[in-house]
Amino acid sequence: MSHVEMPGARVPIRMWTDPGSVEDVALRQLQNVATLPWIKGLAVMPDVHYGKGATVGSVIAMHGAVCPAAVGVDIGCGMSAVRTSLTADDLPGDLSRLRSKIEQAIPVGRGMHDEPVEPGDVHGLPTAGWDDFWARFDGVAESVRFRHERATKQLGTLGGGNHFIEVCLDTTGQVWLMLHSGSRNIGKELADFHIGEAQKLPHNQGLVDRDLAVFVKDTPQMAAYRHDLFWAQEYAKYNRALMMGLLKDVVRREFKKAKPVFEETISCHHNYVAEERYDGLDLLVTRKGAIRAGSGEFGIIPGSMGTGSYIVKGLGNADSFNSASHGAGRRMSRNAAKRRFTERDLAEQTRGVECRKDAGVVDEIPGAYKPIERVIDQQRDLVEVVAKLRQIVCVKG
């Protein structure tokens, strides 16, 4: 489908979904975003749903300003995927050992490594830039610096919620590795600090929603936020790179005889800010629950833990600010999912997937998410599908 335009206070709201299917609270958020004085465009992805401050699944282009709540608290959250030389024939009938080896190698939930993992500890990871990256931690918000040790030990860990590590098969039977994670606790603490700072600034006092408080260019607060934002986005990228390295090491050990080879990793943020140029203007483009889908750029759009995922290639649609959805998108809140579904429902909906099936992950049940096929169908003018994957192992925190 092509997009539908709804009127907004300062810019039209371009939607790649049926506006009637979007919850009222999310529509109200989108209308609020369209009132911001600095806004130059707003694109809404088919996985749109209510979020804190700004809707998940929205792309907000602003001139000379950025809204920290519109980035989300998991700064730099995103996906990585890699195709391997293994095929379904190389896999054992029982995948529980593989899942358990992954869980031993990569801490999940609130877990962290006993000692920091260095890139040199992981097969094939480049070490360039590592020292410079950690040196820049000295410049982050003073109130968060005491978290340095935790931040070093959480690098290369999964976290909880909708984060996952998966082993998947594509339609040809080729094995893929995939994971979804972000900037862990350090990204959240930096985000919370800066959202609080933005809300105190005089220019934000008259906004319709205090969560839409922005930093504006040429101010010390904007400079401090940009430093911490870009550092946290890099942390998230390193986090995924370390985890993918650890995951490959597990696969190398478990499939020694097959001597697995790994193709180049596809990686994309979906909670982040990028400096991009549109219509002759340098804009700060915030993607909250959206990936960049520039022409020919690879992206990853996962479904829920029992429904499969898509590797896509961007079509470079400027109407969406070269963006696409970041996943299926929730159709009900975590609490609503826990009230509605049981462990038996979870077991039924994840049949054939080696994964947790206990009460702790019922809120991640496929039934709590929109159908991924429909979400893909609604953005045929944003991306083309390169591969469809179905998970056979799913690790969650």
UniProtKB/TrEMBL annotation:
Q: What is its EC number?
A: 6.5.1.8
Key words of the record: GTP-binding, Ligase, Manganese, Metal-binding, Nucleotide-binding, RNA repair
Answer yes or no on keyword Repressor: no
Required co-factor(s) are: Mn(2+)
Q: What is the reaction catalyzed?
A: a 3'-end 3'-phospho-ribonucleotide-RNA + a 5'-end dephospho-ribonucleoside-RNA + GTP = a ribonucleotidyl-ribonucleotide-RNA + GMP + diphosphate
Q: Which residues form the signal peptide?
A: none
| Entries under Gene3D superfamilies matching the protein | tRNA-splicing ligase RtcB
Tell me what this protein is called. 3'-phosphate/5'-hydroxy nucleic acid ligase
The scientific name of the source species is: Streptomyces smyrnaeus
